[in-house]
Amino acid sequence: MIMYILRRLVSIMVTFLIVSVIIFLMMHAIPGGPFDAQDMPLSEAVRAKLMARLGLDQPLHIQYFKYMWGVLHLDFGVPYQSPGETVLQLLSRAWPPSLILGGLGMLIGVPTGILLGMAAALKRNTWIDYLASAVATLGLTIPVFVISMMLILVFAVWLGWLPASGWGEPKKWILPIIAYAAIPMATYARYTRSAMLDSLNKPFVTVLRAKGLSERRIIFQHVLRNSSIPMVTVFLPMFIGTATGSIFVEAMFRVPGLGAYFVTSIETRDYPLEMALILMITMAFSLAYLISDILYAWLNPRIRVGGTQE
Amino acid sequence: MTTSQTGGQTKISPPQTPVYKQRSPLYFAWARFTANKGAMVAGAILLLLILMSIIAPLITKTDAISQDFLTERLAFPSADHWFGVDDLGRDFFSRIVFGSRVSLSIGFIAAGFSVLIGIPLGALAGYFGGRIDWFVMRVIELFSVIPPLLAALMLASLSGGGYLAIVFIAALFGWVQVCLLVRAQVKVFREKDFVRAAKALGATPWYIIRRHLIPNSISPIIIGFVLAIPLAMMLEASLSFLGIGVPPPTPSWGQMISTGLSFMFFYWHMALFPTAALAVTVLVTTLFGDGLRDALDPTLKGR
What we know:
heterodimer; A: 14 helices; disordered C terminus; B: MetI-like fold
């Protein structure tokens, strides 16, 4: 197992390096630079000096190695759009709104999804099953900005119950949290339903029924536990996807979170911020998948084969 | 056996041997598909939408791009303008109808390209295994950790956006699923006896893949194709929403939603109709795809 983890870590490092090279090249291949004349009317000398100070006049490979050397020391540089702070400071300022809303969205979406999925599996082909399938399909297919738009139209524009956008008082958080909750809820409803149906048909359930165990204990102690593996392993990657903020939810509800920086950093050629965002998210996803795989092996002894696993 | 009464006499017709019709797997798939009401309805609506996008100029006489109704800017829905008029004086119904062309064509073309990339890579990885498989899987791993939207954003600004760029980007992120499905199928079939027999007769790998393995992967290929369509449509809408998709004045629903966002408090029609159009189209395409997947490969059901 330890060998397996080590091998995976090495492979993650390689992936990380490849991604960093690709992204770096792509980023600099986008025409235009951070101090183009149409955005900033600077004299040629000033621009040259700025470029020199930020190291943008050097060859690409030197810029790359300099940046990656900084990354190794957890120094992600200074964002061009707000030179008074480092990238890390900017992110630690912008991340909390995304984390709060996304985290609360997960906190609401995951349990509701599990409950819906359980109800659907236990009362198969009843209205609740159809409701759960509808929620799962709608949540997974309809783009999140469409969901947000519908929420705004119904609750803010027509009913006028909730404010449409903004940040601050908790009342403004409700709609974005629902929008964030949609995907976890749909995913969990779907996974829980199919996993529960799988285990409900297993012989061990018949045995438990035959020995007279109450239906409630069968469900909660045996079936739920047996079907929990996919639910556990899907959690971390989903959490990272949700808690890093969605460009769309934040744009729709005007939340001052991380999402906007994804777009502005690319638009304004803010190279350090762009690299930092993509590298951090790539790293987070890689680690999340690794931890999920380890959890999967740990929870499911049937696939645990010691260190010889591929 | 049937009995018939003729003149008080009971005549027993000789037992007939039941006729076994040769039924192809596609027949059973079709039977399973027609039994799925939701998928049938979704398929019918999708067909209607496709028809609508093809005969769009016949449905609406007003132009979707020229600003014919500048005096009626932002007018609400009425008998003349079913969906109202937009902020630049264009009939909104025309724009929605013509928007389906962008959405559907990008969905189908990008899904087609995803399949074109996915089949050879999946077949090679599944058939040869070893190094090639390892390499393809690492590439797929790369695609699974890069945040797709961020990469799409960068690619879109790199290429300056536009129709072809969106198709290319959607295909770039759509082939992974097709590839995995084909690879899994090929892996199973390359061990079958008829493939071994072909090999023993001296068939080249290229011949086996082309004649035996790809025809046997037709179900996963169709599934991958149909499931890639809504993903591509969503990507187009997302990029257009962020302003780097299909450039205006070409009508695109994502773009219209983004405009509608600034008008929705007073001119609700600007936000409602494109949102509904996109939601319905993506939804029916997905339901149709899910139904097709269940029909073609019952073992995948509910995953």
